[in-house]
Structures are given as C-alpha cells and as structure tokens.
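Write out this protein's structure.
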Amino acid sequence: MSARVDSWIWAVRLTKTRSQAAAACRAGHVKVNGDRVKPAQPVKPGDEVRVFHGGRERIVEVKELLTKRVGPPAAAEAYVDNSPPPPPREHVAVAGVRDRGAGRPTKRDRRELDQLRGQRP
C-alpha cells in the first residue's frame, strides 16, 4: 500500500495546503530516500521524507500512511521527526524597519539595510 507524497505531506500537516505540497515537490524541495520527487511519487512506511518549507528542512520517517488530513495529535503519530531543532529566535536576523510613509529607500539606505542583514560587505 502507498500514498502520494504531496497528499501525505499535507495530511500530516507539514504544509498548510495540498497545492503548497505539490508546488514544493515540483520545485525540488521534497526528497524521498534522497531523491527529488514529483507530487505523484508514492511513499510507503519506512521511507525518509525531507521537506524544505518555511526556511527550514524537516526530516521525517513515514510510520503510517494517511490520505485524509487529520488532527495534529493523530498527524504526529504518523511519522517520526528526525529534524534538527529550529534556530533560537534571537539568532534570526532582524529586518530593517522603515517608518511608514518614508518613501522609497535611497541607494545609501539600501546599502545600509543590506549591510545590516549581512548580505554585502
């Protein structure tokens, strides 16, 4: 027995919608046993699924097949989560905030924002 990978990712609540799960598969953000997959790729118990979504990689092992979306407690029982813990909030870079109505940033403002974000030297 098997289930579609996009349907399973959605059913166990790794993505909010099935269309997001399918888009992630098409974009190459989903791997099953190390291989990039299409949305219709079947998964079976024991497979390792890696999903890069929301700026974070989730590594899960399929324990149970689900095709219908279930509640969070039941969804958590359908897989084993081997993901690394998310980074602490204080380590996440703070985006520069401009005052409302300040207009378009100048070239100098953009350079300062990029330097603050660590994108340019």
